[in-house]
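Protein entry
_____________
===
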Amino acid sequence: MDDRQLLSAYLSNSSPDAFAQIVRQNIDLVYSAARRQLGDSDLADDVTQAVFLLLSRKAAGVKGPLAGWLLTAARFASRDAKKLAARREFHERQAALMRPEQFLPSDEPPWETYAPILDDAIARLKPSDRDAIALRYLRGQSLEQVGIALGTNAKAAEKRVSRAIARLRQTLATKATVPAVAVLATHLAARGAEAAPPKLTETIALTGRSIVKGTLITTLARKAGQAMYWTKAKIAAMVVATVTVAGAGTGTYLTFAAGTTPIVTPPATSPPALLPAAPSLRAAEPGPTVQSTPPVVVKTEPQAGLTNVDPSTTKISVTFSKEMRDGDWSWVQISDQTFPKITGKIRYLDDHKTCVLPVQLQPGKTYVIWLNQPPYQNFQDAGGLRAIPYLLVFQTSP
């Protein structure tokens, strides 16, 4: 069976045999990616186990070819493995010298000069190019197999692979000296899929989910899953639903956006770029004032960062530094799984600074809410200045 059939079998009845076959068919792809990025076989073992542990938990969310998903997970897990290794003062061991390639011209840059950044470059490609390279070179599939996986034929797959390898070279060239397209393709075909140790393959195939919690492997799996979640929230955007909510004013909107850039804006501060630069102010000119700068969030209830919010809480409120234009607001979600259920009419209090969102919360759940995240910026003061975006995150008690 192919990857998609095996995933279906695993999801339908948690088949250990199906999962073991998925591991055996894809482990070289994951192990090679980790080894390229880390240069350490022990860390590559841990990353490989972490990726398949994450797959065992998140298989239902895999869309498109499994090879592309696994490469992304391996990249995030490898990045976190580097950080954790550095914190614990691990010294990376040099990878064993690979066999010399007598068939390549001596003036071409060697594989070792750009292999460590190869996976980051692949990740920067659009998904269709990334999948084409992963299937053709890192999985070693034929053009016919690539065409089937991508929903096309062998001829079209050949063109897609050719374009993808050319784009990959362009991306790599911004960071390192890289060989010609033909040589790059040869490198990938020859060294893109390094065989994982047989013992590692069987260990992962047999253990599946049963990794002891608290180990480096489970930590890497958790961090990689979080990174993939936020990346998906950032790039999956384009599907947006805007819900009109009854209320005062001419444009009262509650905006749900499936995808925003997760940049936290600290409360009660304004980015320097929003204020006139000091050298441009003449001595006789007045400096910035509260009235001339955008409103910022000064208080939220619940407070951002709390992990023990009472799940019986029935409202979320946000208070700004200035009086706001009544009837307009932008509460923005990145996922319907992390946005609370709305139970009533959104309103401002009499101070015209505090906006209240009636909600129903669930116990033991994390909520993530953007306030005024572009392009949804209906939170504005009386003079029309848009409020600085703010990310409100809190967790309810079990």
